[in-house]
Write the structure tokens for this entry.
Amino acid sequence: MLSFESDYIEGAHPLILDALVKSNMEALSGYGADRFTKSAKTKIAEACSCPDAQIAFITGGTQTNQIVIDTMLRQFEGVAAASTGHVSVHEAGAIEYTGRKVLTLPSHNGKMDAAELDKYISDFYSDGNCEHMVFPGMAYISYPTEYGTLYSKKELTALSEVCRKYKIPLYMDGARLGYGLMSRECDLTLSDIARLCDVFYIGGTKVGALCGEAVVFTKNNMPAHFEHLIKKHGALLAKGRLNAIQFDTLFTDNLYFTLGKNAIDRAEELKSVFIQKGYKFFIDSPTNQQFVILENKKLKQLAENVKFSFWEKYDDSHTVVRFATSWATTSEKIRELEKLL
């Protein structure tokens, strides 16, 4: 069966598996006190043009979002996010589980608008009852968004300026960052993101690694005793080498960006096939996630041979589904899908 279900359905890139095997019998200190962790952090900081970056490795995206948001917010603060943001919808209440509230703003094709964020915070402080409300203490965005859309440099700069104005951190969820950066519509670099965001993470799980995310604090603002706080959340990996070896490999010879480009190239092929076959898109996504409107009978028929993700109901007879390409998707798979369509 063909699968375009998600971008983390394959295991890991062979170079990562080779690196893990080659280092397998080497005795290394735990909890990130190993040579691979040091090397990976150095390579990531260089790629971000941020030599003073403080970097930590966490195994999964949900753990990363929960820990970063919980440890950077004060007791009376919540995190502002678009209503469609991952922490708002698909995080199983992990943020709220820590006692932090997600403060939702309107979503514009998955994106948060800087002017609306500014107004939201301004209105909050103008409210005479604000002491009885949850304070906006952070702005959360993802790149790409849940709908595969991208913030332009102008939009990210505007959000960054609002956050500076109110002295709150701008946090970017980069689970699919590699795919966003390699999109043909991207006008941002990793250096731009490091400059404009206070903290972001580089997703490995969805971009060629077995698991792992690299959290980058860009303003010497890593919470005190962050390793302790990761452990308190139950997310500190004893064998820190596992994440470090993977990121050390991903940031050698631009592998991370090469893998991102493959997904984008295959997504463009996928998009062309659907267009040629007369299908309509729910949204124009420039990244590896493509949202197609299927007639329900056709959906059921196609699902017999192809895996894809339900996204949302379109109307009584149509459904929006997501087809995702990845670092491992081949042109041959696209051709097989074309025959089935």
